[in-house]
Amino acid sequence: MAKCHRNNIGSLVLDQHNHRRTANGGHFRIWNSFSSSSFRRKVLDAVSCGGTRHNHHDHDDFKITSTETITAPNTPKETQPEQKQKQRVLKPQAKANGKSEKLSDLLNLAETEIDVQTKKKEEALEEMKRVVKELQVEDLTTREMAATNVRLLAKEDLEIRGTLAMLGAIPPLVGMLDLENVHSQIAALYALLNLGIGNDENKAAIVKAGAVHKMLKLIESSTTENSSVSEAIVANFLGLSALDSNKPIIGSSGAIQFLVRTLQNLDYRSSPQAMQDALRALYNLSIFPINVSFILETNLVPFLMKTLGDMEVSERILSILSNLVSTAEGRKAISVVPDAFPILVDILSWTDSPGCQEKATYILMVMAHKAYGDRQAMIEAGIVSSLLELTLLGTTLAQRRASRILEFLRVDKGKQVTDSYGGNLGTNMSAPICGSSSMNSKGGAKECLEDEDMMSAEKKAVKQLVQQSLQSNMRRIVKRANLPQDFNPSDHFKSLTTSSTSKSLPF
């Protein structure tokens, strides 16, 4: 908008050819055709901004001259700021255009990368289709190469394993186990192994296709002279047994006997890796209770108890025994092994293996809870001192289990001491006969009082002997643990010797 200046009316030039002085004032008279209202409007237009510029044509004989100039709206002073403002507007537009170009480049690059990845996936899918087709041809060399390619493709990619299974790779691979060519069998076994890793659907499909029975048939055939076939079969049993639905099928098929033979290495052909895989597969199968009976049909329990000294496999062996001890047949199989309880009690002192301590205490706790004879065998094996030591130095779980075993053994140890103290009076301790009708009332009452006094004295003796035994064991524990001689665990012993009527296992 143009700048307005104040206008000063300098003079009015009037055409005075037809004027005359008035008689009274001598003033000029304006033409009749120019009214006072028109004059007032002209003056106002001249004073206002830019008003005189577009109204000069109304009356040719009326002219206004001004001492100051009215600035026009299109002067250079006004166009300069407008140009700067336009420049400021153009700069953000240029930046926006630059950013849009970069964004467009990034989008194009992303689309290019997506296209490349899509093309690679399409090529990989075509490659997998080709490999699956080659598994079904008659040429043995082509099938063996295809099985090797399946093994390599499914080695590291979980998605490819599922895709190969959907394309139908599992049935022809299982069918290759019937071939007499050892190399083809090994290639098919390891291809099946990689297909089942981390994929439960593939594990179930492999068993459903009959792989378990075909692998057992391979074991019985002459081709098992090659140890590589046995190792591949053991590895497959390990992978397939991880699925719960496969456990009863594998356990009832006769695979447990093969795994036990591999673990025991009776033919001296099992590699260390195969023995480790067999032990882990047996642990998987022992989780299912029905398989316990199949395991007990072998001599696995005595072998495991004999191998418990090996620290590399002891924790896994104890895990298998923990599963077996859940059944009555399993507890019996463990208890009849010579020196079973001394072996288990000795594990309680393995302070460098807390896991073994916890599993050993679980086995002993279950057996002590279920069988009175096992408690006596544990006491004879010297379990009390080991349990007391474990309640002080073991893990939290081991301490709780050891305390529970002590509760089971406390009453039995008291009975044992009482029997040795009272001799043939032990039968009268539990249920003294008082007030018999064949006796007089005074004599009967007197005999009852004597029996009660005798029982009270025996209970005091038992209690004293138990306390002496606990104190003696505590002194040995303090000495072994290098604790201060003035260490007083009386409060802890009070919690251990508290009577409990609960017969359930909290762990």
UniProtKB/TrEMBL annotation:
InterPro entries xrefs: ARM-like, ARM-type_fold, Armadillo
Bias type Low complexity, positions: 495-507
Domain of life: Eukaryota
Transmembrane segment boundaries: none
Name assigned to this protein: U-box domain-containing protein
Keyword annotations from UniProtKB, A to Z: Coiled coil, Repeat
Ranges of compositional bias, category Polar residues: 64-74
Chain residue ranges for the region called Disordered: 50-100, 482-507
Organism of derivation: Quillaja saponaria
Coiled-coil parts of chain: 107-138
Gene3D superfamilies: Leucine-rich Repeat Variant
PROSITE patterns: ARM_REPEAT
Residues in ARM repeats: 168-210, 254-286
